[in-house]
Amino acid sequence: MSQEPQKISTSARRSIVCRMFLYICLTLTLVGSIAGTLLYSIQFEREIEREHQEMMRITNTFKPAIAHALWQYDKQQLRLLVAGLQGDPGVSYVRAVDTTNFSTEAGTRPYHSHVTRIPVYYDELLVGDLSVAYFNGSPWLKALENASPYIGSIFLLLLVLAGALVLVLHQIVTRRITKLARAVNSRIEHGILTPVDISPSRSMDDVDQLMVAFRELNEQLIKELERNKLAQHQLSKANTELEDRVEERTEHLSETIAQLNQTVDELNTTQSQLIEAEKQSALGGMIAGIGHEIETPLGLCLTMESCLRNDVQAVIAEHPELAKTEEWSRVSESLELLRENLRRATSLMKSFKSVSAGHINDDNDWIYIHKTISDLLRSLSPMLRNHPYEIRVNCPEDICIQASPTAITQVLTNLITNSLKHGFSGRAEGLVVITVEEDSDNLIMDYQDDGIGLSREAAKKIFEPMFTTCRSDGGTGLGMHLVYNIIKQRMKGEISIEPSDTGVHFRMVMPISKAQRRDKGRQAIY
């Protein structure tokens, strides 16, 4: 840690000098490149002009003689002149032609743009033209050769200038800033909280002003740090006292809250027990009243129906001819209707009794859902044997719930009965899927079939007591109400109808343990 500030200072100093030197060199290189390009362009233009002047000088020497030969149609003379012109250094091809296509040439015509056509006049009369290809070395290379000393001198001068500028900037700026950085790093390394000793020069330039401003800022920061340390010490002392007080009061408050929670739990348990007992008492009283008011006359009616049927059979035995009369047929039909309706009333009375939660056994034991469902399906096998329906169960064997198996059995029995009686009505086949899974502290049971499904009105009223879509077929409307009461009241869970493309889909969510159901019941009360 002690060497890190010095490393940072040295790196910063070198970085600034290198960057300044790099930036200056790049700038001067750009300037030198522009100057060298201009100088090279001037030399190139001069070389092109010199080449053109040389070609014109050579051509003008031979042009009068060539004009005379063209005028005189002296082909022998013209060939000698053209050969002499082509023999000049730099001339690679010459062709002379008059206006009547009388021509001669020497050399090989180059396939590039260096062939120059010059009109030939004899006594101010155009007699033909002269084509000359002149090439005495690349003008690019000659221009570069002539400009290289000047360009090298420019770059050397710019490099010296860059070094001088960097040296001056280092002496004026970076050296003084490095001195300031070393003084700061020394105090950071040794933990010295004294102002930085800075001696500005007499010129008081920008760097001196920066150093003076830094020293003033350093002094203000030191004073502020001392004030903060004092305030932090006082705050720490106050926090310690406050924490002691808070800890003491929190301890008393925790004890009070624990006592209150214990009292509230006891009150909730008592209230839940009282409410449950009141519900059971009210339901038991209602069923007892119904049993007293209905079962007695209902039993008497069943007895009288049996006696009446025996008397009628005795009369038939003594007078067989009466069995063929119309009056006797109406009597027999009336007796059958009376017997059937009495049986329906008795069955309805049993359904009323089954709604009571008291019929469900104790739910302190833990049961395996898969085994409970398997036992239920075995008990329902006689009812399912005559129907080509499939019941598929997707349930891990290790899922447990603290509940009465009777409650689960009653729920699934009513759902399966509804699917067979309503969902698969008039169908030769059908599928029921029961899916069970765990989610946190809840057990989720999905019941689905691919039957005819529910109408919108039936979906709204399916859990209401006495609601049924098959009352004419003996439906009482108590099965789904019993399912609702078991899930909501006994299991403290939720049951809902989920959207489904085919058939019906019930989702039941129930707490796994009895303690969770008890806590949920307390929350519902409050």
From TrEMBL:
Q: What is this protein called?
A: histidine kinase
Q: Which residues form a coiled coil?
A: 243-280
What InterPro entries would the database entry show?
Answer: HATPase_C_sf, HATPase_dom, His_kinase_dom, Sig_transdc_His_kin-like_C
| Signal peptide start-end | none
Q: What is its EC number?
A: 2.7.13.3
Q: Which residues form the Histidine kinase domain?
A: 289-514
User: TM segments?
Assistant: 21-42, 150-169
Entry-linked Gene3D superfamilies = 1.10.287.130, 6.10.340.10, Histidine kinase-like ATPase, C-terminal domain
SUPFAM superfamilies named among the record's database cross-references? ATPase domain of HSP90 chaperone/DNA topoisomerase II/histidine kinase (SSF55874)
Recorded source organism is Thalassolituus maritimus
Q: Which reaction does it catalyse?
A: ATP + protein L-histidine = ADP + protein N-phospho-L-histidine
Q: Which Pfam families match?
A: HATPase_c
Record carries keyword Membrane: yes
Write the record's keywords in alphabetical order, separated by commas: Coiled coil, Kinase, Membrane, Transferase, Transmembrane, Transmembrane helix
Q: Name one GO molecular function term.
A: protein histidine kinase activity
**Is Lipid metabolism one of the keywords UniProt gives this record?**
no
Which CDD domains does this one have?
HATPase (cd00075)
